[in-house]
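Record pair follows.
FIRST:
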Amino acid sequence: MSTLTRRDFLATASVVAGAAAIGARLEATQPAAAAAAVRVKAGSDLVTLGKSGITTSVLGLGTGTNSGKEQRDLGKDGFVRLVREAYDRGIRYLDTADMYKTHELVAAALKELPRQDVFVQTKTSAGTAEQAKAVIERFRRELDMETLDSVLLHCMTRPQWSVERRAVIDALLDAKRQGRVRAIGVSCHSLEALTDAVANEHMDLHLVRINPFGSSMEDKPEKVAAEIAKMHAKNRGVIGMKIYGGWGYGAKNRKQRLESVKYVLGLGTVHAFTIGFSKIEQIDETLELIKEASAG
């Protein structure tokens, strides 16, 4: 039987270590695997929002129509009933924001549902770290949630917003590390802000205005879609808004709404989308449109 000398051992170890180091460097330089295209068949399909790990339904119920007035006008009982019926149809995503003044309504609806099944996204316009910290604690009280699912910086428009709001981002990241928030992100209302959002590696989620008409959007659909593709490639969760354009469900007719759903689903880069519903008939029609678009 051969005997391995110390010199032989060191030489062998050196070769192995060198090979491992080279392998590690090669692996690090390889391009990341492309994110799988999003393919859905129904609005109730469950999707994972990128690296956030959050799972929710493709279709979400928004509460910001006319800055939330349309949903607030339902009253608490009417809103809770709408959410309950949406849940029965498989909708597991509620979208709100501080400026919509609908936290109280959302909290009331959550009491009627299995909390662990529902993804709740809210938003803040906080400008300082102190404001962000206070807002997070207020949101937790208003929504009666120990851990907020998602908090977005709301309606960013400036080209370098992520530099200007770095202290706020840091405060959100601290809240995430402390278990007060599961995911953070941003909604943008200019193409320059959207481009800046793509470059910010701290973002888990993006809420983006997208439809084939260029209605209430940052720029032409193809330009916005290109930024969305970059977000998707970075494994960010991408959520669409203003899918039907305009400020209300009736901004387009049924044919146009179908065209819009087909367009957004056809991108393969949008995980979910939120629409400001105020009637169960609107939800039912949209669920039908998603099935129709997916089958076509």
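SECOND:
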Amino acid sequence: MPLKIGIVGLPNVGKSTLFKALTKNPVDIQNYPFCTIEPNVGIVKVPDIRLEKLAEMSHSAKIIPTVIEFVDIAGLVKGASTGEGLGNKFLANIREVDAIVQVVRDFQNSDIIHVHNKIDPEEDIEIINTELIIADLETVKKVQIRVEKDARGNKKGASEQLVILQKIRKNLEEGKLANETVLDLSEENTELIIRELSLLTMKPFLYAYNVSDINQKLTDDLEKRNHVKLDIKIEEELLEMTTEEAEELEIKSNLDQLILKAYEILGLITFLTTGEDETRAWTIRKNSTAPIAGTAIHNDFKDKFIRAEVIAWDELLAVGSWSKAREIGKLRTEGKEYVVQDGDVIEFKI
């Protein structure tokens, strides 16, 4: 299943319009708060020029890109953590995604309602993040009560888990996101407690600033966040234009940058396979070994893995074919310990 990116933000900041532009799906984007009640879901191709080049080399019958799933979640409001608006439902929807794209309005337009009747992107970010932090703090407090009891009973691992909880809670109480907490992720207890908590602010964040000019200067505070700038209205207009019309008007989309950054914050990379039947992109976690990477193709590849033949995509293009690469010794034979790199073209032997 593709990993999910949740699109969140205050009501009426361009979330549904962005979703429409990303997925090319018609959704309800009326100019009023809470027009999105149930989350819209769409599968989005991850742009990758390497696929077309390899497919041309291999004379592939088809190209299969990798994908990620975008979820358009209805607007959060101040007080969502205590049930304001449709708070509990929205927070539950956010909990189900793997990463968060927060859409932030940074343009003036009196015809488009702002839920607080003023344009202040930094305050909007603070409102959204505060609601997520408050919800997470309640979760941590509940789990901490149980873990403290376990620690008093000398349950194995409880003391270590309590230290982790205290660190996360301290950050949340200081108004920081849980993902800003410095933790030793190599510790088994850390992974266990983080999975159990399923904190909203432990997820990776990307900020999408909805601007009226892509060259618009941002404040220092906005600039320092992991972000991408989008003119979401232009992105919507591009849906109605042909490629030729867009080129004639010198209008370019910035959606590819958003998709690639979303892919990046999930900690993902792509390896490739190519042949006459298809050229295909496969999604894996960074630092995956070859047997683990092989499970993207089939679960059996992990246990039945013997070796992998590997070559970087650009090296393969330079050689001209897989058979030529083998003939001149350009294919590397890698074993179980090999860590797959982004852009590797691989043939698994099982």
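COMMENT: Residues 26-37 have pLDDT under 50 and may be disordered.
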